[in-house]
Design goal:
The structure is a homodimer.
Chain A lengths: L3 E6 L10 H9 L2 E5 H4 L9 E5 L4 H13 L3 E6 L8 H11 L8 E5 L4 H9 E2 L5 E5 L7 H13 L3 E5 L9 H12 L5 E6 L7 E6 L12 E5 L5 E5 L2 E6 L10
């Protein structure tokens, strides 16, 4: 029997975001691999084995899951959000390329999900309504100079910027530096959105300006969206503001 | 009674992508507004009214839906994919900002969905596994010079590029020009993915190179992903290749 591996996006936390496709794939799996808190979101099924590992062990987890699948099992690997955005799908592909030839014969399925930036954007309006980019702020996997260069060109060219991995215990200063850089490229009034744990019980979404944004507003569970020069805030009486980026740009503003 | 408007992402076509949250919001609506082919995906419910309009009438559709909601109804507006990505959520926000003050009191909910680039990426591996951007190639809403500038800076800075609205009947030459520009910034062997109608019966995903990419491979239902210098293709015996962008960049390559 040919082994199967599916890499499944769970969406941003609550079961209301889990697609029927992802649900079916989870139910069909003989074993599930993932970061512990993600595994905890998946309802238990008798006979289905679970293999929890630490957040930073993506490549080792991919190797283990592929080895298991190569024995003929149906193996699932789970990611929060979408598995293709700074998550397990790339780790599994890296492992297949570097691994034994037999892993290339496995049946590989990637199952997309609602990634964090879409969920945060939806909570506040439509900040990603025009051209945008997604940048991981982690310099574990790329030089910090490259992160800064990408932030600068994206801001100058008018992209809205979604920042993944903005802050972690091991990376306390990077987000502050990123904001400082962006202040040179964008007006102080540029809207900045902090989306903490969107889709979970402790969800908290706040809107501030680039001038007022600071590291203390972000933690490991926060996705940050930095507006462009075009991004607007609509005040609403008795309701939270709507933040959106218009579909049209009349003139080149930078 | 306060009127309600929800802007709902249907995902990439098949019901297996529709989140439970979106399904519930569709069922609760008194009336649904949208582009005809998107409305056709929503199962009919007795007593629920439908208002189909043309693809290019986003703003007029938003105005009508808001006016209807302001009368106290529960109104839904549907988008394919995610409503926040080049779709109806920004159009609704624009309409609220420009419309009567009373529209600011409406209960507005945006319900995210799996956007096309995530679905196409999932079909082929993990091309969006590293920093990436999403650009609408339509110059109906921004100057073509700005599109070209964004393509160039994104490619040079190492972003993978997802192109929405690559081709339409009214815009036949833009995609060819975009590819020509990108050939100056990226190697000829850069992987290019054409994802046609992903999630629908006529789905077709092909992988080629920047050198071989051409307008004839794209139509109105095609999302295109242009790799970065880091994007890799894994050949697999008897299976389609996997295309992915590694999570790590060792050195600044541009």
């Amino acid at each position: 029997m040919t082994g199967q591996i599916s890499v499944i996006g769970l969406g941003p936390g609550d079961p209301r975001y889990l697609t029927p496709e992802a649900k079916m794939a989870l139910e069909a799996a003989d074993a599930i691999y993932g970061y512990g808190p993600y595994l905890d979101r998946v309802p238990a099924r008798p006979g289905q084995r679970r293999h929890a590992s630490d957040n930073r062990e993506e490549r080792a987890r991919a190797d283990m899951a592929l080895q298991h699948a190569a024995s003929g099992a149906r193996v699932a690997v789970v990611s929060g959000g979408d598995p293709g955005v700074f998550a397990m799908a790339a780790a599994v592909c890296e492992a297949i390329e570097a691994g034994p030839e037999s892993w290339r014969s496995l049946d590989v399925t990637i199952i997309p999900g609602v990634t964090a930036m879409l969920a945060v954007a939806a909570r506040i309006g439509a900040p990603l309504g025009h051209d945008f980019c997604a940048i991981s702020l982690s310099d574990n996997l790329k030089p910090w100079d490259l992160v800064v260069r990408r932030l600068n060109v994206a801001a100058e060219a008018g992209f809205v910027i979604a920042l993944y991995n903005a802050v972690s215990k091991a990376r306390p200063w990077q987000f502050g530096q990123a904001i400082e850089n962006l202040r040179r490229a964008l007006p102080p009034s540029t809207p900045v959105i902090f989306g903490h744990a969107v889709g979970r019980a402790d969800e908290r979404v706040t809107v501030t300006t680039l001038d007022d944004a600071g590291s203390q507003q972000a933690d490991m569970a926060t996705l940050v969206i930095i507006g462009s020069r075009e991004t607007r805030v609509i005040a609403r009486p008795g309701r939270s503001p709507l933040v959106y980026t218009p579909r049209a740009v009349a003139e080149v503003s930078a």
